[in-house]
Specification:
This protein is of the alpha+beta class. It is built from 14 helices and 21 strands. The strands form 4 sheets. Strands 7-1-6-3-8-10-9 form a 7-stranded antiparallel sheet, sandwiched between helices. The protein has a 5-stranded antiparallel sheet with strand order 13-14-12-16-15. Helix 2 crosses helix 3. The longest helix has 29 residues. The protein starts with a strand and ends with a strand.
């Protein structure tokens, strides 16, 4: 067993996954085996001044590491990002720089390889590691070394008897039965040698046949037939397109394999790893007074940045319903399709049997205009029973959305905790207008912020009268019965900007009995804590009230 120890003096790690664009905001963590081996080879050329490539000992060592899938012991980290506006030839382009921030200055990444290296191979590996000054982006300063066999035996998770076992990151193929927790990530690794040899032979044969057929067609068009030398030349040309071994494959330039139309580097393969959820934390809105031991979090705050050089072109508030509906669908897609978490009732609003949940215990999407101008710049996702860790991961994975007239909206997790926690943080943020987070407050008097659409037909009197429907729904949702309800006249709704909103969900979704909007003022005998959302599409921004 050999263990590589990597420390990060700047307490940051920047690396974009091989299958991602930098502006997707994704971070390759842990570092893929492919990235690490390429970095070691780069050290040989830049620091050890190799002229003819790695020597026999180093090649043997690289071959052994390539054949093993490492395990990782990961330090705790927080993911974050910065945004930069970089000038290009004809415009200014916004670039995201996502990175991990290590809270502990002594944070150390351990990479465990189950291989047996000779003393000469260990010395060659340690020499390369000590020359590794960064990993990933150049900002990711590193100090790396090869641990002694005694240190490696003590620190490997499988041998930490009597000690607290640190979070362990393993390939899914070797995860012990019953250990299913954590997030699935895929990392780029090297093919096994025998698989690479078969792949190379098959690719050479296919390419050579294609080149030979092309050459035959050219010559036959001129009334000639290909000679044995010409055929041999096409075979040699096909063979030259593919690296001779894994060490050569690791040194392939990105422009080379991309220019030949390959979807990934030659000799590479994707391996699924299980990353413990506890090693990556999210700490936006710092310092956010949350209870880190809580099993479920009742509210998450998402920030929305739009088009324009300053990201200020955001969706109009009257288009809250379609945007909230889109974000809801994206959260479900992330959970089911990308993160493979399955159905999460608090997000989907459906139970395991596919039936719609009753009782409004799942997510409510609340549009907020914290910066004013009747633009949606934040969204509070609130769940009465709280969000599980899986649901939080799905919500945090939302990166992009769109709205009418805006092709691209950037979505980022900005905070989480109780509604009171988030209010306290917003109060400390000068840019946030107090009336922007009225829906999150507490008061005896509440006024409509978005139009109210009734979910049932309304009658002038009786159980289906507007007054009775509101009273019954408030009681069902756990609020006090209001002392008074005053419905606004159409002129007042126009004056307060509650006309012209989208009132119906997209085709194929439940529609209201009539697309007519109302607004009201509710007064209670004692203060009620928000948010309060009532009526049709209340989970998607309609029927929202604000504390007066």
């Amino acid at each position: 067993m050999e263990t590589i120890a990597i420390e990060f003096p700047a307490r940051r790690y920047h690396a974009t996954p091989w299958d991602a664009h930098v502006n997707e905001g994704r971070i390759e963590w842990p570092p893929s085996p492919w990235r690490l081996l390429r970095a070691l080879l780069a050290v040989g050329y830049t620091k050890l001044r190799w002229d003819d490539g790695p020597d026999e000992t180093t090649s043997s060592m690289i071959g052994k590491l390539s054949a093993a899938m490492p395990e990782y012991t990961l330090p705790e980290a927080t993911d974050a990002h910065t945004r930069h506006y970089l000038p290009t030839r004809d415009k200014t382009t916004k670039v995201f720089d996502a990175f991990l921030r290590f809270s502990n200055a002594d944070a150390r990444l351990l990479i465990h390889y189950d291989v047996d290296l000779t003393d000469a191979e260990r010395n060659a590996l340690d020499r390369l590691l000590r020359g590794l000054t960064y990993l990933g982006r150049a900002e990711s300063w590193t100090e790396a070394r090869l641990l002694s066999p005694q240190e490696s035996a003590v620190l490997h998770p499988s041998t930490t008897t009597g000690m607290v076992t640190p979070p362990r990151c393993q390939p899914y193929a070797v995860v012990p039965d019953g250990e299913t927790f954590g997030d699935r990530v895929r990392l780029l690794a090297t093919m096994p040698t025998d698989r690479f040899d078969r792949w190379r032979a098959s690719q050479i044969e296919t390419t050579a046949d294609a080149l030979e057929a092309e050459e035959r067609a050219k010559l036959e068009a001129k009334g000639k037939s290909p000679s044995a030398a010409a055929i041999k030349k096409t075979r040699a040309k096909a063979e030259s397109r593919f690296p001779q071994d894994l060490t050569s494959a690791l040194q392939s330039a990105t422009s080379t394999w991309q220019g030949q139309g390959w979807p990934q580097p030659p000799g590479s393969v994707w391996i699924d790893y299980r990353v413990p959820a506890s090693v990556i934390r999210r700490q936006p809105l710092t310092p956010l007074a949350t209870n880190p031991t809580a099993d479920r979090v009742p509210a998450l705050l998402l920030a929305i940045d739009g088009d324009g050089k300053r990201g200020t072109v955001r969706p109009l508030y009257n288009r809250a319903l379609p945007l909230m509906e889109l974000l809801h669908a994206e959260s479900v897609r992330k959970a089911v399709c990308e993160l493979e978490l399955g159905n999460l009732p608090e997000l989907s609003g459906k139970g395991a049997d596919g039936e719609v949940l009753r009782g409004h215990s799942h997510a409510h999407w609340i549009p907020l205009s914290l910066f004013g101008k009747q633009r949606i710049d934040h969204v509070l996702v609130h769940c009465r029973d709280g969000f599980s860790t899986s649901a939080i991961a799905a919500l945090a994975a939302i990166r992009w959305a769109y709205s009418k007239g805006i092709d691209r909206l950037s979505i980022n997790l900005a905070g989480m905790g109780s509604v009171a926690d988030i209010i306290r943080q917003l109060e400390r943020t000068p840019a946030c207008r107090r009336d922007g987070y009225r829906p999150l407050g507490s008061s005896r008097k509440w006024e409509s912020v978005t139009p109210l659409v009734f979910a049932k037909y309304i009658h002038a009197r009786g159980k289906k009268s507007p007054q009775r429907q509101l009273r019954d729904e408030l009681i069902r949702r756990g609020f006090d019965e209001p002392a008074s309800i005053r419905f606004w006249e159409p002129e007042e709704m126009v004056r307060r900007g509650l006309k012209g909103h989208v009132l119906t969900r997209k085709p194929g979704k439940p529609q209201p009995p009539m697309a007519r909007s109302f607004a009201a003022t509710l007064e209670f005998d004692r203060p009620q804590a928000g948010p309060i959302q009532l009526g049709y599409a209340s989970h998607f921004g309609l029927g929202l009230f604000g504390a007066d």
